[in-house]
Amino acid sequence: MDPDAPLIYLNNAATTWPKPPGVIGEVERCLHQPVYEAGRTTADGSTDYPSVTRDALASFFDAERPEHFIFTQNATDALNLLIHGFAGMQKVPFHAITTDLEHNSVLRPLRTLEAGGRLNLSIIASDDGRVPLQAIRKAIRPETRLIVMTHGSNVLGSLLNVQPVAEYCDANGIFLIIDGAQTAGQIPIRLSDIPAGAFIFTGHKALFGIPGIGGFYIRDPGSVASIRQGGTGTDSASLTHPHEMPQKFEAGTPNIPGIASLRAGIRFIGEVGQDAVTARLRSLTSLFIGKLRDDPGICLYYPVPDLPVVSFNIRNLANGEAGFILAKAYHIITRTGLHCAPLIHERIDGGNGCIRVSFSCLNTREEIETAASAIREVAAGANR
Amino acid sequence: MKEYVLDAQVTGQFLDFLERFGTVKRIEQLKRPYFSFEKEHFISVRGFIGDPTVEVRYAKESRDIVADYFHLMLYYEREGEPGIEKLKGIEGTMREKIRVRLGQDLGQTP
Which pTM value belongs to this model? Predict the structure, then answer.
């Protein structure tokens, strides 16, 4: 193997790479400026990145209130703030619902609260990668206050129809948190059409930001307690953390380069066009699956993904070994293991994990064809 | 996981030696011929025949007990058959410590 052979990066559901040049340029520009501090004297020419990025997010997601976008470290951080913050507002133990498609960033905060006697948790089994409203309604009890569900599975690549769930929750006083870590930037999302309590996104995946930036949009900030207090640059004489948005959920110096990268990533998607991005990803995914579908040495777990995520195993070869061979012998970066979503793996592969490839719109058809060919070669070798 | 660069490339002869202590898998019909070595409760090794770089993973439950095991393998491999016998003796001691810790019969060395 030529050590200088180009890298084919197919782990974009974890973190996209490469980043568009405009993202890297914006981070560099940002670091060349003094940090803008809202409400304080600052240098001329500094950009108020948090404010302009909130505006960009509101436009991108078609959301009404830019100040209701909160910046966090990532989707996990956002989920923790919301889940623990929502529980903090409940005076008695309550019932919460989630699904078996969830990432540990959902499951672990919920399980932690359950272990502490704060909530009872029901986990709904998905059906062919989906969780219909009917299944959720069956699990609802009089004391159900919270539902946390993914918008798209990071293992199967299935897209969940969250709109009817959001409408039901909105009409029945249940706080719905949608985990959009795998969908934000992949498909068009109009939050004005989805009356969820909160929508989570992360910057470093399909929004093309750098690692360390994510966030959420919250419709009614009064539903969730602030669990992080500190300096906000406003109302500094008060020892009580402000209730105004966005300060209620943000304290301390924000990740300004991360926020700048998020804005540039959104701008990049806007320039290409979200519909064009989505169409390209579907085309790449379809091309890849078409190359592997009929190979007897390969087991595809969800051959009709809505998102650019394909999970599979090579027969007679552990997924970790397959990932190692692909990386070291073919320079193809995949992701192996449980992908932090252990419950769905119990169902599809007995909890042994799988190989996941995931595309970004910057992948080329040639890369997909080369990767598929390499995977088939490894499968043939393992099953000779 | 630790990555080691060995003094020499991995050869078929080295894999024959490893086979005396655990399960060796070879997939030779690839761009780079792959091998893995698995020894339950001890270590697993991955790499390519003809390449000096290997990845070694240590069993979580006995990481402290088997920390030197791979180094001992490399050392005793050079001694040939007498080295194999010495290493099996050391391995028996390690196996007993692991058995006590896990409270289960680990079976015999292959």
Answer: 0.94
